[in-house]
Amino acid sequence: MSEAAGVLATACEWMRAGRGVVLGTVASTWGSAPRPAGSHIVVAEDGAFTGSVSGGCVEGAVVQAARAMPAGAPPRLMDFGVSDAEAWSMGLACGGRIEVLLERGPEAGGLRAVVAALAARRPLTRAVRLRDGRAECFDRGGVEGPEAIPGTSAAVTGAAGSETHRAEIDGESWLLRPYEPPVRVVLVGAVHVAQALAAVLAPLGFDVLVVDPRGAFATAERFPGVRLVQRWPGDVLGVRHLSVSRDGGDVEQR
What we know:
24% helix; globular; four-stranded antiparallel beta sheet
């Protein structure tokens, strides 16, 4: 699971448990920024949080502002920055600026649609209207998922791009955040080297798949949390589309 999908999945879990949450998204960056636009943080009303929008530089201020947002509050844009002169005096290489959007109680269906799309390896964009937090999701692959939000306007769809950005659509300001499936890494041979690689790659957000027909090698005990396929590599590689079940028992090829 990618980093973004993990943060959004946590937000969904907390909301299902009845916990009030605020979703933070890096809306834009300028100069030196520790986290790219589109990075997420989710903050629960009790102060618990996961994800990062600044690598720790402004997390405290974001968490404090998130906890102070009342239920039903409209989205809030927060601006953080440091000039080149200030950065130099603190021993930093250069200044920078980040803008963070906070959404109190983000629309749960939209977040679930993103998580489901990424799990199905489909590109999807979530658009948020800054005035009131209205969210629209659309599958850029052209296939509407079962949890996709219906009624997405053509104007919003037409403003989609490959990067997180602000857009003026029909006189309204929107933030569009595209999501791409994580890069898949196929490790052929469930040997000790593959164990070490999987342990490094999976936490970094890569979609790791281990292929080995030997049942004694490709086991969940040796590769915890990694998807396994107990088949010959030639039966799995070289296909245009590959879908693997979580337990590795079924492989769909098209």
